[in-house]
Amino acid sequence: MESILGLLVAPIILFTIFVAPIWLILHYRSKKQVNKGLSDEERMQLNQMAEQVEKMRDRIKTLERILDADAPNWREHI
Fold first, then answer.
1. CA 55/CA 45 separation, integer angstroms
2. Coil, helix or strand at residue 73
3. d(CA 35, CA 74)
4. E strands within 1-78?
């Protein structure tokens, strides 16, 4: 029984001294960043992507209207 405890003491001490504090620091740092929200740059990038999505949506609708006029049965071949 003592030999098993002897084998576990060193890893537990190492974990407590080195791993646990680093783990806690990184955990709470990431929580802080999540609660902080988006930065101004990230918000700007998100808005740019949303604008690009709208443009692509309009282009797709236009292409579908053209295909509907030129080849009414095109959707059946997808």
1. 15
2. coil
3. 48
4. none
Q: Considering only the C-alpha atoms of the chain, give the largest distance between any 2 of them, rounded to a whole number of Å.
A: 84
Task: Please give the distance of CA 44 from its chain centroid, rounded to a whole number.
Answer: 17
Domain ranges of the chain: 1-37, 38-78
CA distance 24 to 26: 5
Summarize pLDDT for 11-63 with one digit per residue, the tens: 888 888 989 999 999 998 888 777 777 788 888 999 999 999 999 999 999 99
Task: Say which residue the tokens 């918000």 belong to.
Answer: 43
- Tell me the two tokens of residue 35: 């609660």
